[in-house]
Amino acid sequence: MPMIFGELARRAVRRVRGKVSSRAAGREARSVIRQIRDLKAAHPGRTLCGILLVEHIGDIIACEPVVGWVRETIPDAFVVWVVRDVFRELVDHHPGVDAILTVSSLALVAPVVRSAAFDVCFDLHVNRKPTGRKNLDHVKTWGDPRVDGFSYFRHGTILRAFSTAAGIVPALSGTSRLYVPPEVVRQVDAVGLPARFVAIHTLSNDAAKNWTPEAWSRVVRHILDAWRLPVVEVGLAPTIPCRDGRFVSLCGRLSVLETAEVIRRAAFFIGVDSAGAHMANVWRIPSLLLFGQYKGERAWTPYEGFFAEEPDRWILRHDGPLAGQSTERVIERLDRLAPVVDRLEAVRQGPPHLA
After folding, report:
1. 14-165 has which fold?
2. Looking at the predicted structure, is the pLDDT value of residue 355 above 60?
């Protein structure tokens, strides 16, 4: 009996904390709602369309085709993307986005939707996603609430699942684009990358998708010695202890778009299901992506476009947590893909087209 009362007490505390977080988010959202109404007043005769997807890098890249769909579907649309400030640069240079509004958290999205400040609103988040605020999930009664954090795999790729979550019927498909401005290209030029190299990104924002540093070290050593190509590590934090002069870690030194530009110049990419993989997919970079069983799913392919054309070629799956994948199996698959790299011409240091 004491255990039952203890659990009831804990639930009551969580409910109270959730209500406190919800009220705080509502107050914080008022300034965003005012900005939306100001945009509406400044652009009379336009349909104010909100695309709400505040995080993360891979999800935002995957859902980029929503912009084109809104433009096609609503010809007079004034398109506003609502995003967390840390991810803003992903949409900052998009020619189809008229304005960007930044929020501190997913918690602000529900008050924005309920305000009806947008003429049309596409909330691409899945239902009951944690907001990052204490005891507060993003609970939806709009769009398609059946798409949640446990079921979205069953709805297809990220783009298909998230567009379904937004209530878009039929679900969207399409190839994503990234828009890299000339100043970012110049900044990456100044890094002095090798003419040909392998880019590597080892960390996902979910630790369950990660491999082990020891395994990565063995794979990097194989690329350096057998492929005879330099390796450039990108990401927020370094994970590979390697003192070889042919190994370069740019972790923590690049912006999001600078990272995308480094990956664009790579002859080959290797990584986990992460932001870097979505960037490589946009640029159609030959790759090896390491997937393990995740949330009970063994065969899910999150991508549209390049990787979706030949998923069995570019994705190596492990029937269990990725940490259990053997380095021997990864190296074997790498060497089967080596001829793809051999056929590629050296990557130029010149600027990319704004893809």
Report:
1. Rossmann fold (3.40.50)
2. no
